[in-house]
Amino acid sequence: MSDLVKIINRELSAFGLRIRGIKVFDEITPFEGLDAKCVALIGHIGGENWDHFQAWWSKADHQDLDHPLDTWSKEIINLLAQKHEGVAVFPSDEPYYPFQNWALESEALSKSLINLLISEDFGTWHGYRGAIAFEEKLDFAFSENHALDVCAICEDKPCLSACPVNAFGSAEFLYSECQSYLKTKEGEASCMTDGCSSRNACPYGQEYKYKIPQMKFHMRAFRKP
Ligand code: B12
Ligand code: SF4
Ligand code: SF4
Hints:
Layout: H1 3-13, E1 18-31, E2 34-45, H2 50-57, H3 68-83, E3 87-89, H4 99-106, E4 110-111, E5 117-118, E6 126-134, H5 158-162, H6 175-182, H7 185-189, H8 191-194, H9 197-201, H10 212-222
The structure holds cobalamin (B12) and iron/sulfur cluster (SF4) (2 copies).
């Protein structure tokens, strides 16, 4: 593992974040004036970031922010990028950078039936908070052989029957059906309170499942008003 990866990981750990993987580009890729050879994906596994974010969010001048988790992530990751001469990019900024594709190519993850990437260890309970592109090629331990196709070996596929509107039964995620349900009394009492029933039904990574406050936060951000 590169020394820079170790250093950045140490710095990120103070916020419950980590380098999840390094996507090495086949060709030099321009990122806002930087000729990048790789991009380091930054995120969390389970709820390891949550208490750090909550402590920051509870400060008086952070409480009225429209996108507090994005603002928190940008504060941390922009500073690290500046310090280590990289360029930071973020998953919610448009045009969207292909975070899921980068993750598939740099981590032991596979595509799940519920449109999230899945790990044999921590299931779908993980997320990305940003990435830093670097001119130097960084090394990171990764073996593609470990990327087991988890859903292919899952016999019962409980995620599919858990959704009250069968949002995952067809080729595409039925986004509007899901959103409409979340606005009903039943939706408020189920998915909006405990998290997506399909994601919860997946047996993989149950011990990494987000706690209720984090679950609620993400569901509110996901449900448009
Ligand atoms: C737009 C968006 C949405 C939209 C539309 C999603 C869509 N499928 O089009 C909506 C609002 C529906 C959405 C919902 C959610 N999203 Co969203 N979303 C994004 C966002 C911002 C952009 C996606 C995109 O269009 N990328 C552009 C393409 C080109 O990028 P790409 O990586 O190369 O995309 C490739 C993969 O999608 C892959 N692919 C192709 N087919 C399939 C099929 C499956 C099953 C998978 C897994 C991948 C995959 O091929 C694509 C093209 O090469 C990403 C962040 C990002 N920048 O990637 C988050 C992201 C994908 N979302 C995420 C999450 C967590 C959610 C929610 C759970 C929200 C929540 N409550 O927390 C829900 C889940 C709903 C669901 N089950 O699908 C996470 C996923 C992390 C993970 N664990 O895998 C991401 C990565 C954001 C993050 N900060 O971590 N999302
Ligand atoms: S329940 Fe089974 S099929 Fe559904 S996401 Fe989890 S592993 Fe995949
Ligand atoms: S949040 Fe609820 S309605 Fe939406 S996909 Fe998940 S289980 Fe279905």
